C-alpha cells in the first residue's frame, strides 16, 4: 500500500475513542454538576424554616430596639426636657409631672375628708377655695398651669432664701407638720399635769381724779300685767351634760402618728412616695421662714384704723361727691344715698375699726397715708372709686393682735411674692410644651 493511501483513509479508532472519551467525559461532568445542585424536600423545608426563624429573630430585635428607644425617650429624654426657666434655673417635665400628680391627689384627699365629715359638696362648690379646687380637678390644664406658676414661685422663694441665708431645718419642718395635723406638743405634754398655783400680787390702788359721777337709778324688776309674784326660786329643768372623754398624752400621740401614716399611705396608693410628701412640708417651712424674715422688717405691730367710705362706679361721680363734701354736705347722707357698697352704705359709709391689711392694697395704702379727718380720694380699686375718711389710726402689738398677726404675715407675704415675680419677670420663661405633659389622671 502506498503512503498516500495510508494518510487519506478513515480516522484511526484510537483517535475516535479519544474523541468519544472526551465527549463522554463532558457529559459525566455535567451529570455530576447537576447532581450536586439537587435538594431534597426535607432540605428545602429546613432552609425555609431557617429563613423564617432568622426573620422572626430580626423582627423581635427591631421591636426590642424600638421599645428600648421609646423607654429611653420616655424615662430619660422627656423627663429632662424643660418646661420653664427662672433666672437660669430649669423646671423639667419630670418635676412638673410629679408636682401635678401630687397636687391632684392632695386636693382629692381634702375634698374626700370634707365629704366624710358630712358636708354637702354642692354647697362647697359655690365657695372659695373649694370652687377652684373642684374646677382644677375637672380641668387638668387649669390645674397644670396653676401648679407650674406655683413651681416658678417656689424657685423664686428658694433663690430669695439663699440670698438671705435662710435654711430649713428639721424643727421648722416638724412645726409645719404639727400645724397641718393640729398637734401641739406643748399642750400634749401638759395633759394630766396639775397646774402650779401662783401667788396673785395685791394691787395697790392708784389715786386718780375722776369726774363726779351722776347718780344712777337702781334697776327694779317689773312684773308684766299678767304676772304674779310667787315666793321661792323658779324651777329649772336640768339639761343633760355631755362629757367628752379626755384622751391621755399617749393616746393623742398615737392618733397623731396614725394621722401622719394615713396621709402618707393615701399618696402611696396613688404611686406617690413619701419623699414627695416630705418635700411639700419642706416648702411650707421655707415659706414660713421667709415670711417671718420679711415681716420682721416691719416689726411685730399692725396698723388699725377707724374708717368710712363712699363707693361709686365712675371717677366723675366720685369727684362730684368730693366737691359736695368740701361744701359741707353730710358724709353719712351722701353714703346712704349714693354708695354702691350695700354693707357700709346703709350705715352711712362706716367700716368700723379694723386691721388695715384686710383691705385691698390701694385702699390700705390710702389709709396709711391719710391724715386724720381728711377727705381722701377718689381712690380706684377693683371695686370702683372710693372716697375715704379716716377717723383714727393706731399701731397695736402684743397679745391683742396675736389672732390676726399670722393672717397679716400671709397677706404681706402674698404681696411680696407678687412684687418678687414682677421684678424677675424678664428672667422667667414658660414654654408652650408644658401643656403636652400635664398628667390626665
Q: Classify the beta-strand content into a percent band.
A: 5-15%
Provide the low-confidence segments as ranges. Answer: 1-9, 13-35, 200-243
Radius of gyration, whole Å: 45 Å
Would you report the number of β strands?
7
Which topology of the domain at 302-411 does CATH recognise? Answer: Chitinase A, domain 3
CATH hierarchy, class of the domain at 302-411 = Alpha Beta
pLDDT averaged over residues: 80
What kind of sheet is the major sheet? 4 strands, antiparallel
Task: Give the structural class.
Answer: alpha+beta
Number of helices: 16
What is the spatial order of strands in the main beta sheet? Answer: 4-3-6-5
Quick take:
The chain is of the alpha+beta class and 441 residues long. The chain is built from 16 helices and seven strands.
Structure description:
It is built from 16 helices and seven strands. The protein is α+β, with helices and mostly antiparallel strands and 441 residues long. The chain has a domain at 302-411: Roll (Chitinase A, domain 3), CATH 3.10.50.40. A four-stranded antiparallel sheet has the order 4-3-6-5. The protein has a three-stranded antiparallel sheet with strand order 2-1-7. β1 (82-86) and β2 (89-92) form a beta hairpin. α4 (93-116) crosses α6 (130-138) and α8 packs across α11. The protein is elongated. The chain starts with a helix and ends in an 11-residue tail after the last strand.
Amino acid at each position: 500500500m502506498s503512503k498516500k493511501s495510508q494518510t487519506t483513509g478513515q480516522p484511526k479508532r484510537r483517535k475516535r475513542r479519544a474523541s468519544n472519551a472526551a465527549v463522554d467525559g463532558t457529559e459525566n461532568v455535567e451529570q455530576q454538576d447537576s447532581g450536586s445542585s439537587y435538594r431534597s424536600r426535607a432540605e428545602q423545608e429546613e432552609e425555609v424554616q431557617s429563613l423564617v426563624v432568622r426573620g422572626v429573630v430580626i423582627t423581635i430585635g427591631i421591636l426590642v430596639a424600638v421599645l428600648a428607644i421609646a423607654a429611653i425617650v420616655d424615662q430619660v429624654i422627656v423627663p429632662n426636657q424643660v418646661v420653664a426657666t427662672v433666672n437660669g434655673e430649669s423646671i423639667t417635665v419630670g418635676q412638673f409631672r410629679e408636682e401635678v400628680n401630687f397636687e391632684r391627689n392632695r386636693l382629692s384627699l381634702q375634698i374626700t375628708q370634707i365629704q366624710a365629715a358630712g358636708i354637702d359638696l354642692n354647697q362647697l362648690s359655690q365657695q372659695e377655695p373649694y370652687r377652684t379646687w373642684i374646677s382644677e380637678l375637672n380641668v387638668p390644664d387649669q390645674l397644670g398651669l396653676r401648679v407650674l406658676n406655683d413651681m416658678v414661685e417656689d424657685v423664686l422663694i428658694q433663690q430669695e432664701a439663699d440670698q438671705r441665708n435662710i435654711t430649713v431645718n428639721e424643727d421648722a419642718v416638724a412645726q409645719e407638720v404639727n400645724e397641718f395635723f393640729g398637734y401641739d406638743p406643748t399642750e400634749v405634754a401638759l395633759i394630766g399635769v396639775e397646774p402650779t398655783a401662783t401667788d396673785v400680787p395685791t394691787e395697790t390702788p392708784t389715786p386718780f381724779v375722776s369726774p363726779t359721777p351722776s347718780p344712777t337709778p337702781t334697776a327694779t324688776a317689773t312684773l308684766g300685767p299678767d304676772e304674779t309674784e310667787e315666793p321661792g326660786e323658779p324651777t329649772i329643768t336640768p339639761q343633760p351634760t355631755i362629757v367628752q372623754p379626755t384622751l391621755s398624752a399617749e393616746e393623742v400621740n398615737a392618733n397623731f402618728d396614725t394621722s401622719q401614716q394615713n396621709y402618707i399611705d393615701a399618696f402611696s396608693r396613688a404611686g406617690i412616695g413619701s419623699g414627695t410628701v416630705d418635700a411639700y412640708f419642706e416648702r411650707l417651712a421655707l415659706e414660713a421662714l421667709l415670711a417671718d424674715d420679711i415681716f420682721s422688717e416691719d416689726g411685730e405691730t399692725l396698723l388699725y384704723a377707724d374708717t368710712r367710705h363712699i363707693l361709686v362706679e365712675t371717677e366723675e361721680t366720685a369727684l362730684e361727691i368730693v366737691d359736695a363734701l368740701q361744701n359741707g354736705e353730710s358724709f353719712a347722707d351722701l353714703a346712704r344715698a349714693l354708695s354702691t357698697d350695700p354693707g357700709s352704705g346703709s350705715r352711712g359709709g362706716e367700716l368700723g375699726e379694723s386691721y388695715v391689711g384686710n383691705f385691698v392694697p390701694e385702699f390700705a395704702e390710702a389709709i396709711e397715708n391719710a391724715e386724720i379727718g381728711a377727705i381722701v380720694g377718689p381712690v380706684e380699686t377693683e371695686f370702683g372709686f372710693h372716697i375715704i375718711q379716716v377717723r383714727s389710726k393706731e399701731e397695736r402689738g402684743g397679745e391683742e393682735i396675736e389672732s390676726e398677726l399670722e393672717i397679716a404675715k400671709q397677706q404681706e407675704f402674698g404681696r411680696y411674692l407678687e412684687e418678687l415675680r414682677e421684678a424677675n419677670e424678664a428672667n422667667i420663661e414658660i414654654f408652650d410644651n408644658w401643656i403636652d405633659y400635664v398628667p390626665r389622671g
